[in-house]
Write a structure and sequence with these properties.
Elements: H1 2-14, H2 18-30, H3 35-52, H4 55-65, E1 81-85, E2 90-94, E3 99-102, H5 104-120, E4 124-127, H6 130-144, E5 150-152, H7 158-171, E6 176-182, H8 183-195, E7 199-205, H9 221-246
Parallel strand pairs: 1-4, 1-6, 4-5, 6-7
Antiparallel strand pairs: 2-3
C-alpha cells in the first residue's frame, strides 16, 4: 500500500499544476548560478501552465487520449453486466442526503451507467475505494433508482478495479461486460479488464467537445484539470505496458 500511495504522490508532483510550478521554481533557484537555464525553466514552466489551462490545449490532449467511440448498444447485445469504475471524487458525508454522495466527475459516470442500466436491464457492479464505492452505490439508488448487485470497495487503482471485478463477476458466470468510465480513461481500463479474461464493450462518457469559440483561448481551472487528467492517461498507458511486459505486477 505504501508504494501505491508513493505512486500517487509522485504523479501529483509531475502532472499540472505542480509539475510546471516546480519547473519554474527550479529555474528561480538557478537564476544566480545559471541565469540562462534559470530563465528558460521559468519561462517554460509558466508558459506550459498557461497553455495547459486553456480549453484549446485541454481539448486537444483529451482527444489524443480518447480511443473509443460512443457505445453501440446493438453491438453490445451480448453483454451480461455493467461495470462502473470509480475515480473522480466523492463526499464522505453530504448533509443534504444525510450520507455519502458522488462528486461531479464520478456522478457523470454514474449517470451514464444508470442510463445504460435502464436501457438494457443489466445488473450493475461498482468498483472503487471504500467510501467511494459506498457513495457510488448510494448515489445510484437514491438519484437514479438503480440497484447495485456487486460492490467492490477495495480497489485503489484501475488494476485493482479489473482484478476485483473479475473475481466477483466470474463467480456468477459473467464474462461479457459493458464498461463505463470517462473517455480519456477508457483505453487503459479496457486493457486491464481484458487482461483478467473479460470481454469488454467500452462505454465512454464525458467525451470532449471540439467546437471552437474564442473563449477556448482563455485559461481556467476546469481546463487545467482536464489537461492533467488527459496527461495522466497519455502517460499511464505506456507505463501499464511496461509493467505488463516486465511482469512487475500480476493479476
Amino acid at each position: 500500500m505504501f508504494f501505491l500511495h508513493l505512486k500517487t504522490f509522485v504523479k501529483q508532483l509531475v502532472l499540472p499544476p505542480a509539475g510546471p510550478l516546480l519547473l519554474a521554481l527550479v529555474g528561480l533557484l538557478l537564476l544566480k548560478r545559471r541565469p540562462m537555464l534559470g530563465r528558460t525553466l521559468i519561462l517554460v514552466g509558466i508558459a506550459s501552465l498557461w497553455l495547459l489551462s486553456t480549453p484549446l490545449v485541454a481539448t486537444a490532449l483529451a482527444q489524443l487520449a480518447e480511443y473509443y467511440p460512443p457505445l453501440d448498444l446493438q453491438a453490445a447485445a451480448g453483454a451480461q453486466a455493467i461495470v462502473i469504475l470509480g475515480g473522480g471524487g466523492e463526499r464522505r458525508y453530504a448533509a443534504e442526503y444525510e450520507g455519502p454522495a458522488a462528486g461531479p466527475v464520478l456522478l457523470e459516470r454514474l449517470a451514464y451507467g444508470a442510463f445504460l442500466a435502464h436501457k438494457t436491464g443489466l445488473p450493475v457492479l461498482v468498483t472503487g475505494a471504500l467510501i467511494e464505492a459506498a457513495a457510488m452505490r448510494a448515489s445510484l439508488e437514491r438519484n437514479f433508482d438503480v440497484q447495485t448487485r456487486w460492490v467492490d470497495d477495495r480497489a485503489y487503482d484501475t488494476f485493482d478495479n479489473a482484478s476485483d471485478s473479475a473475481q466477483l463477476l466470474k463467480a456468477d458466470g459473467v464474462q461479457r461486460i459493458i464498461l463505463v468510465t470517462h473517455a480519456t480513461h477508457m483505453r487503459r481500463s479496457v486493457e486491464e479488464f481484458r487482461a483478467v479474461g473479460l470481454q469488454v464493450f467500452p462505454a465512454p462518457t464525458g467525451m470532449s467537445d471540439s467546437s471552437f469559440q474564442f473563449s477556448v483561448l482563455v485559461p481556467g481551472p476546469d481546463a487545467l484539470s482536464r489537461s492533467s487528467t488527459a496527461l495522466n492517461e497519455l502517460l499511464g498507458e505506456p507505463a501499464r505496458r511496461v509493467l505488463e511486459a516486465t511482469h512487475l505486477r500480476r493479476h
